[in-house]
Amino acid sequence: MDIEIYMPCNPDWFCDGLMASFGVVAVLGLLIFVGVLYREHQKMNAPNKRNRRNKKE
Fold it and tell me: What is 1-57 written as a DSSP string?
């Protein structure tokens, strides 16, 4: 599946560099998003210290 942007590309090297930079930004954004999801998942599944103290008393 080709993705067409419809940009006037007079020098081909400019469009190739632009597409490469968009690809790098997209991959970095995806990695950051997955990292945030993983940290939130860890926070939600971490044992709650307050509940442990209340159970001991």
Answer: ---------SSHHHHHHHHHHHHHHHHHHHHHHHHHHHHHHHHHHSPPHHHHHHHH-
CA-CA distance, 26 to 13, in Å (whole number)? 20
pLDDT tens sequence for the chain (57 residues): 787 767 677 777 788 888 899 999 999 999 999 999 999 999 998 887 665 555 554
Q: What is the pTM of this model?
A: 0.60
CA dihedral over 41, 47, 50, 55, signed as positive or negative: positive
State how far the Cα of 28 lies from the Cα of 32, in Å rounded to an integer.
Answer: 6
| Contact present, 15 and 9 (Cβ < 8 Å) | yes
